[in-house]
Amino acid sequence: MATTGFGVAFAAAAVGDDGRISLANQEISGVLTAVGGGIVGAVISIMVARASDRETLQHITDVLEDSLTSTLRSDNTRLAPARQLWHHYYLTKLRGQYVWRYEKYPFDLSAHVGSLAVEIDVQTDSGRTHKYLVEAFVRHERLTIVSHKAGEEANVFEEIYPQFDGELSEYFGLGVVRTWDATNIVTKAILSSLPLVPGAEGTLPEQNFPELDRIWEQGFKRLNEVLPDCT
Question: In which domain of life is the source organism classified (predicted)?
Fold first, then answer.
């Protein structure tokens, strides 16, 4: 009954000065009624605008399409703390050497309902730029981020941040990835609301490596116990 009510509310808001509802507005109203509360929450504020405005209708359509095609779903309220610009650092192996890399994750730009998904530009050391799709979801207090080159399903980078409560400015996790050297590794990952070291996106200067090692070591082991070998 509640989801049907949202569709009726939209239909009422879409009535024009002549007392009629356009065909486009009828279609949007029907979609809202069918989809229900999860999607409607994102467009509730838009309903107060004149729904006959073509720009408003297009915005509603875009939000609905993006939300329904996102692959990783979460309770939208749990995603709220993650909807911001994050500075992302991770350790990897490149040409036989361990290096820290840095990228920005602009989750504040994601308009998806119940999911986070953005495209970013990843710079290689050779100067080439690749498009990557970065998606995130939350289960209980665990934030999981999955990224891969746009249009490809191979070489997926998966990260998990075990203690994501939305109250801290820094979070420390583990990542699993196949490196550019074709090696499978379990690695260190950091999300921060502020930059942690100087440097542009891409592979960071070597002088920053000890500081990032120290930050991750202290932050991760403060909240998580890493079990030793049994023998």
Answer: Bacteria
Output b/e per residue, 149-180; b: 16+ Cβ within 10 A. Answer: eeeeeeeebebbbebbeeeeeebbbbbebeee
If one counts every other C-beta atom within 10 angstroms of the C-beta of residue 193, the result is 12
Q: What are the structural domains, with CATH classification, of the chain?
A: 2-69 (no CATH), 77-223 (2.40.128)
Choose between 131 and 61: higher pLDDT: 131
Nearest one of 4, 187, 213 to 92, comparing CA atoms: 187
pTM here? 0.69
Burial zone of 113 (CB within 10 Å; 0-12 exposed, 13-18 middle, 19+ buried):
buried
Three-state secondary structure call for residue 173:
strand
Alpha-carbon gap, residue 119 to 133, rounded angstroms: 5
- The predicted-structure confidence for 148-184, as pLDDT tens digits, reads as follows 888 877 778 999 999 898 899 999 999 998 877 677 8
